[in-house]
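User: Continuing from earlier, I have the next pair ready.

Assistant: Great, send them over.

User: Here they are, in order.

Assistant: Folding the first of the pair now:
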Amino acid sequence: QVQLVESGGGLVQAGGSLRLSCAASGRTFSSYAMGWFRQTPGKEREFVGAISWSGARTYYADSVKGRFTISRDNAKNTVYLQMNSLKPEDTAVYYCAADLSYKPRSENYEYWGQGTQVTVSS
């Protein structure tokens, strides 16, 4: 069982930065690959990025590549999403997810957090 809680969302101006955090429970955090997703009302949830259990491998959606960075600190049971050069189209609820398998493009993750709102103004 893995429980995830996102934090760090807020309102920023275009071009600004935010760092989202996802705190995980349990002793098996380091065994899980992590993913970040986002969803806007009326739109389908979309994949943002993923990181392997070791942190050695990462993958990003084309829409955020070069602007967003995923990292993890297994000692703190936390995964991060550093978001730079934010655009209004990045506005969404951001979710973290965990799975025993590294899934760089899939949305079929076993565990999900409740999400945190990110709003980017023009």
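And the other member of the pair:
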Amino acid sequence: QVQLVESGGGLVQPGGSLRLSCAASGSIFSISSMGWHRQAPGKQREWVAYVTSDGSMHYEDSVKGRFTISRDNAKNTVYLQMNSLKPEDTAVYYCTAQIATVYSGRNDYWGQGTQVTVSS
């Protein structure tokens, strides 16, 4: 079984920064990709960023130049450094990963989410 646990959310003023972390644990054989989605109140869940096994990073247009995704393969952990935060970045941020376990093929996993609030 696989579990994803996010941390690092909180309240920050516009223009501030936060760093989110997501650690995967369980009977992990390999991780193909890890990334982040977010969902703001009254809006659909949106893709934010992800990194693939070859190290390629991809970003949604609204966060390009402000957010940076990184991955520590040894720790099965993905990070999202969020700079120049805007009120419209306020959302619950969800970690997601494509993981193959010791006992099964590759599947998609989701964390519980961490709240990010950008407000003065």
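Worth noting for the second one:
The chain has no helices and eleven strands. The chain has a mean pLDDT of 96.
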